[in-house]
Amino acid sequence: MSQLNQVLFHENSRVGADLAAWQATIGGQGLTRALQEPEAIIPLIEAAGLRGLGGSGFPTYKKWQYVAAQPNDQDKYLICNGNEDEPGTFKDRILLQEAPHQVIEGACITALACGINRIVFYINPEQTESLAAMQTAVAQWCDSDWFDKLEQALGKPLEIRVMPSSGHYIGGEETAAIESVEGHFPFPRGKPPFPAVSGVYGKPTLINNMETLSNVSHIVRNGAEWFRALGLGEATGTKIYCLSGDVLYPGAYELPMGTPLSTLIYNYGGGMLLEKELKAVFTGGPSNTILTPKDLDVPLDYENVAARDSSLGTGAMIVISEGTGIVKRVAEYVNFFAHSSCGQCPSCKNGTFYAAQLLTRIDTGKGSRADLHALMNLCNMLPGSGRCHMLDGAMKVLQSSMHHFMDEYEQAVNR
Amino acid sequence: MSNSPVSYEAAMAAYRLEAERPLTEQHDDKEALLRAYHPDYRADTMTALKVGPNSGEQCHRQLADVLQADARIDEADLAGASVVETDVLVIGGGGAGCAAALVAAVKGAKVLLATKLRLGDSNTVMAEGGIQASIDKEDTPQMHYDDTLKAGHQSADKKLVSQMVMDGPDVIRWMIQQGMQFDTDEFGDLLTRRAGGTSANRVCYYRDYTGLEMMRVLREAVQNSDAEVWEYSPVVELMINESGHCAGAVISNLKDCSYVQIIAKSVIIATGGIGRMHLNGFPTSNHFGATGDGLVLAYRLGAKLRDLDSFQYHPTGLAHPHHLAGTLITEGVRSAGTYLLNGKGERFVDELKPRDVVAAAILKECAEGRGIQTSDGSQGVWLDTPGLELRNPGILQQRFPKLLHLGHKAGIDPHTSPLLIYPTLHYQNGGVVIDEHGETTVPGLYCVGEASGGIHGKNRIMGNALLEIISFGRRAGRHAAERRHSKGHKRVSIDHLSRLRRELTISDMPMEQKSPMLFPDCAKFDTDVDYEGLRRNQDK
Fold first, then answer.
1. What's the complex ipTM?
2. DSSP notation for A173-211
3. Chain A nearest CA to B450, separation (Å)
4. Is the pTM higher than 0.80?
5. For a designed S-S bond to B432, which of B174, B260, B402, B447 qualifies (C-beta 3.0 to 4.6 A apart)?
């Protein structure tokens, strides 16, 4: 059986915003089972080993337990995070456009498990087609019997809505998303209190990525064992890898979690463009440590990538071949972070801006050795000084590029 | 009837000066003549494009080769390349580019004009016949419109044509304001003459170097404007932003062999035609720099092209002596009443028919053995200038000084000897698809002049090229300048090259050839090699 597109991207799932078509195959089975036995859902998710697929890799059941443990006599919120704005990531928009019912059913089961009665689909406004598909699909759910059944099971008035996010990259950060849902600018909040205790309007709030939620109905329908068996090695389930950059066939590939990087690039991506040598891979956000050719064998799951001092992130793999300037790429990414900084923390606002300026100067042949030293100092000073993790991410990619490709920086300032 | 061409010497000896030569009855069907003899109709030179926005459409094979070639640069070439920012980048220093740059600068935009050679090195200066504008009292823009569509075989973009003909009179006024001279009568009114394939006297002209006069004025105006001019700076690639808009260009600085990235809110391509590709091995009247760069640049960025199988072969290119082969003799000579004669001294076509018909008729005469052959093997027919002089004494001296100059260079006196002519690759009828502002299908990318398509359909009439470059040059300059208020680009890159290389690999195309060509095959110097001439200039 082909390992490609087994679950989330399976043709049974990608039926578009058509509830009848979704129910004609697998749709509704998970939710029916969940309604019969709501208290069994969280243990099932724990047994399946589902993790946060938006980048954290945090065990999903733990988050759910915290929210479920909060008193049930109040409103609880679920924010389905589809803010997706990172360079190289384009999986959520496919899920939302082509399989909106998969994620909605997953969100409904999640709500049932945690006693949540307010579901918000929080979607990047630039993805107009995702928004349109979700609006149609949510309207279909609200008009169906499922809505009443769910409301009855919850014992609280249920609300499902689609909301465009502010479009800022930082709006994808958990606490920033909460601010956004409350109608404010997405400034990240300090933690604690954690959202599970005090999120939207001080109510318990659960935030999950669209891909995570999309898996839920399948797990409830097919069981934990099935899900665990999907993964390779210790890993569980599947992962949507967003392959881009200098490969022949870029695209989003749903593959078993733990598929080696080389398999992704050479078997599915068609190999390197023009058969050039692989130089580096920027993973995830791209706020992670860079992978290099020696990491080609790494199984792409959370533990194994972390063992190489990097992180799987959103599953984005931006592949760079020989003949590409690293400084230019890093300058672009740091510039992206500089533009995305919300400006709350001076270290982040000024630090990313300054780093981007230095990088651009070095990349355009105007940099000096002093600029390079200044960059190194920034890498030492800045991490950990921001309220959220954005600054750390920006510095991580910078630091790791200097670690692996210092010669290119040297060359640029010696010119 | 003899089936072998008569030799140049024998034909010259047999030539007799006659004032009137009646045209023998012509029975040729125009379409049949074109199909049989016009080079555009040669099926073996056409191929279907395999990659890019025009995939599946017919295109001349030589042009397809450069449209589907690999890029000259890689991302690594941009490491350390300096960055310059501007509002409007104009690529090309001919008439269209200068007009666009001038108008954009007057509108308040920061303008940078980059040209492959020097400002004014262009085909504009080669335009001899004149510029069409319906200013005669017997004429209307409607007639101009009808003539343009008819000559273009009804395939031109009607909206573009209607705008151009309506712009006509104002274009003449604007050029006069810039300082351009035209030939006038004793009252100072503009003289007009009739072009081949048209129904009224509509061509305004200045001697037989109208384009040169136009370029003189435009060049001075640009030099006196706020627009910055970079010479010896061919564009090797365009750049794209995060949402697929054109975001600037990479320039290869020929003087110090370095790349410069120019980030611009809008880019205007005004790079001219493709004559120096010598399609079908034809000689060309075109300037050294006419290598079709703009088509390649725009196509890679995703702009749609049109009429890639349609080119204009000007009927009267000089065929003898060999070293001047291809040099243009203005259509003005024919519109003044000069006859074309075959090897037997007979007229064979109405000389004022559209260019494609006259060119096909000449090719037919040569193919059927009624041509005149020179010692180097090339063929041609007579352009009977002595007959014209006989009917209108003094006309050559007064109206065609450039022709006499050409005669002087060739060692032939047009007053007494006819000139041997043969069709020459003259103009690219098609090009980049544009809208009424000169904007292509890629936002932020404009295209004007010969590089653009749609205005002439499948054949151009004399004088519409000079009108087009000013009319649409000004339109594009005006519209592009408005974009200076837009938000800057988030991310500027040459990512579209990855898309190109993917498509080329998947379609199994060869990747050895690089484009744009930049320079003709006869002068293969470019940014990568030490070109002797450039170094010599630098040392000075």
1. 0.87
2. SHHHHHHHHTTS--PPPPSSSPTTTS-GGGS-EEEEEHH
3. 34
4. yes
5. B447
